[in-house]
């Protein structure tokens, strides 16, 4: 089965190099080709691809996408991959490393279920000094925690496989440009697929590991991430589920979240152990509120 592994990269040449070499350890990778799209004009990622040794086992196609933003980068990598006429496209991020059975497990679940899309868990690897609160924070990694082969609604694009014919049906725009600077393009992508009737399954053993750098353990980084994710989720629904009634329901849910966040903050005053949870709720409420006010946040973490 011909599969193209799609990677978008942005100013992480070392991470991309580690990823490309980790792919050489894959089992069941016959017929694999790799497309890398570098979303920075300096072309550091493309240079990494050019520096691969002559005996690197996979054909690698690298190009620079000059239009800034994760959506243009993802669209460029899809277009290049489809030009190679594969049966499947598989996606990874440049700060990830797949397990040896990553691709074979995605393909196995697809073969056994006939699913249009198969996703797997992304597990975070933390610096040694990370505390338990940080290690258990659901905003790191992406793991649905469901059984192998189960039907699901995917949300994150860092670890999934899709039939080429299915993604081709979404042309010419696969990942919506409205989320180029904010993220959330992957949630919009999977939500749109679900509305079109695409079937999705979970491959619990198709594991990739994501490196968490020390600068992501700060409170300011986490606040930005929580606010941005909440903001983009509402904006995705505003785009894909428009209308007065749907909008009112979303607004009521956000108002309820604001009430819960306020009460949690008050209850946490004498209980330090609950302050982190209260902070998260406040940040989530703020992100959703700004989206209702038609303000799009921008993530400051690269891709």
What is this entry, summarized?
By secondary structure, the chain is α/β, with parallel strands linked by helices. It has helices at 13-23, 44-50, 70-83, 102-113, 132-135, 164-168, 185-195, 219-240, 244-268, 275-292; strands at residues 3-9, 33-38, 59-64, 88-93, 96-98, 117-119, 122-125, 159-163, 200-202, 208-211. The protein starts with a strand and ends in an 11-residue tail after the last helix.
Give your account of this protein's structure.
With 303 residues, the chain is an alpha/beta fold. It has 2 domains: 3-215, Spore Coat Polysaccharide Biosynthesis Protein SpsA, Chain A (Alpha-Beta Complex); 218-292. Helix content is 43%, strand content 16%. The protein has 10 helices and 10 strands. The strands form 2 sheets. It has a 7-stranded mixed sheet with strand order 3-2-1-4-8-6-9, sandwiched between helices. A 3-stranded mixed sheet has the order 5-10-7.
Using the CA coordinates, give the radius of gyration: 20 Å
Structural domain count:
2
Helix content range of the residues, please? 40-55%
User: Looking across the biggest beta sheet, what order are the strands in?
Assistant: 3-2-1-4-8-6-9
Main beta sheet strand tally, sense and closure: 7 strands, mixed
Regarding quaternary structure, what we see is: single chain
Sequence stretches where pLDDT stays below 50 over 5 or more residues: none
Tell me the CATH architecture of the largest domain.
Answer: Alpha-Beta Complex
How many strands in all?
A: 10
């Amino acid at each position: 089965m011909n599969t193209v592994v799609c990677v978008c990269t942005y100013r992480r040449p070392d991470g991309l190099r580690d990823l490309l070499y980790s792919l050489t350890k894959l089992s069941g990778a016959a017929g694999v080709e790799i497309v890398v799209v570098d979303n920075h004009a300096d072309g550091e990622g493309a240079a990494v691809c050019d520096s691969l040794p002559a005996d690197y086992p996979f054909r690698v196609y690298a190009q620079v996408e000059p239009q800034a933003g994760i959506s243009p980068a993802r669209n460029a990598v899809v277009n290049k991959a489809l030009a190679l006429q594969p049966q499947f496209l598989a996606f990874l991020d440049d700060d990830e490393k797949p397990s040896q059975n990553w691709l074979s497990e995605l393909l196995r679940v697809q073969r056994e279920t006939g699913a249009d899309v198969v996703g797997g868990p992304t597990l975070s690897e933390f610096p040694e000094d990370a505390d338990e609160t940080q290690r258990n924070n659901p905003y790191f990694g992406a793991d649905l925690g469901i059984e192998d082969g189960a039907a699901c609604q995917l949300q994150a694009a860092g670890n999934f496989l899709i039939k080429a014919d299915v993604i081709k049906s979404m042309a010419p725009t696969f990942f919506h440009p409205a989320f180029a600077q904010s993220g959330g393009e992957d949630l919009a992508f999977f939500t749109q697929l679900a509305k079109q009737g695409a079937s999705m399954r979970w491959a619990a053993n198709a594991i990739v590991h994501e490196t968490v750098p020390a600068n992501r353990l700060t409170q300011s980084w986490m606040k930005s991430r929580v606010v941005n994710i909440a903001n983009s989720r509402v904006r995705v629904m505003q785009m894909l589920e428009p209308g007065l009634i749907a909008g009112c329901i979303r607004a009521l849910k956000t108002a309820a979240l604001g009430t819960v966040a306020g009460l949690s903050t008050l209850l946490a005053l004498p209980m330090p152990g609950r302050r982190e949870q209260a902070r998260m709720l406040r940040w989530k409420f703020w992100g959703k509120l700004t989206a209702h006010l038609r303000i799009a946040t921008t993530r400051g973490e690269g891709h």
